[in-house]
Amino acid sequence: MTFDLTILAPHIPFLVKGAVLTAEACVLALAGSLCIGTIVAALVTSASPVLSRIAYIYVDLFRNIPFIVQLFFFFYGLPEIGIYVNAFATGVIALSIAGGAFTSDVIRSGILSIDPGILEAAEVSGLSKPTIFRKIVMPIALRTSVRPLGSVFINLILTSSILSTITLNELTGSAKIVASDTFRPFEIYAVLLVAYASLTYLVSLAIGALHRYLNRDQTEAA
């Protein structure tokens, strides 16, 4: 069998559309997981044992259930009780909730790594706890957590390929359709491998650049 990429030519617009759908889902899921993760991390590190316990249960629950099971529950299970959501929205919600569990752990580690002396100084200066959390704790925690948060984002990109199982024609779903139409799965999936590898590599480079930019003052001091 010869390796022939010319068979892809008629299907490029369809594959590009799938890639755009993947990008949209991942960007929205990243924003959702950041919001959820920040809230959960705040609850986990709060002084309230009840809120902290609820947050821990959420993290343990969604970190220990396969993503495909969560996805099927949202897409196939919820309609049984009258909750209907389209495939794209379901995918974004499922990725956000699952990603939020991992994001919260990263942000929580960033919060716990903050020098207690900084917080004590902020309290002595008369700042309220919400202000301290918003203007001091979160900026420092997010700055120190850029790299691990980047790993979570990359994992979201890779996990998004599972959305094809709920009839969403994102990049992987589009590739499956083209492979079945052309009967040339080798070429199609070879291109898919390169596409995902390239995408995650570019994201990794961007995260590295962002980390260096946010921590440039420490680098210059060193």
Automatic annotation (TrEMBL):
InterPro entries: AA_ABC_transptr_permease_3TM, ArtM/GltK/GlnP/TcyL/YhdX-like, MetI-like, MetI-like_sf
Coiled-coil annotated residue ranges, if any: none
Subcellular locations according to the entry: Cell inner membrane; Cell membrane
Record GO terms (molecular function): transmembrane transporter activity
UniProt keyword DNA-binding, yes or no: no
Swiss-Prot/TrEMBL keywords: Amino-acid transport, Cell membrane, Membrane, Transmembrane, Transmembrane helix, Transport
One matching Pfam family: BPD_transp_1
Keyword flag tRNA processing: no
Residues in ABC transmembrane type-1 domain copies: 19-207
Gene Ontology cellular component annotations, sorted alphabetically: ATP-binding cassette (ABC) transporter complex
Function in brief: Part of the binding-protein-dependent transport system for glutamine; probably responsible for the translocation of the substrate across the membrane.
Family in the record: Belongs to the binding-protein-dependent transport system permease family. HisMQ subfamily.
Listed name of the protein: Polar amino acid transport system permease protein/putative glutamine transport system permease protein
Organism whose genome encodes this protein: Phyllobacterium myrsinacearum
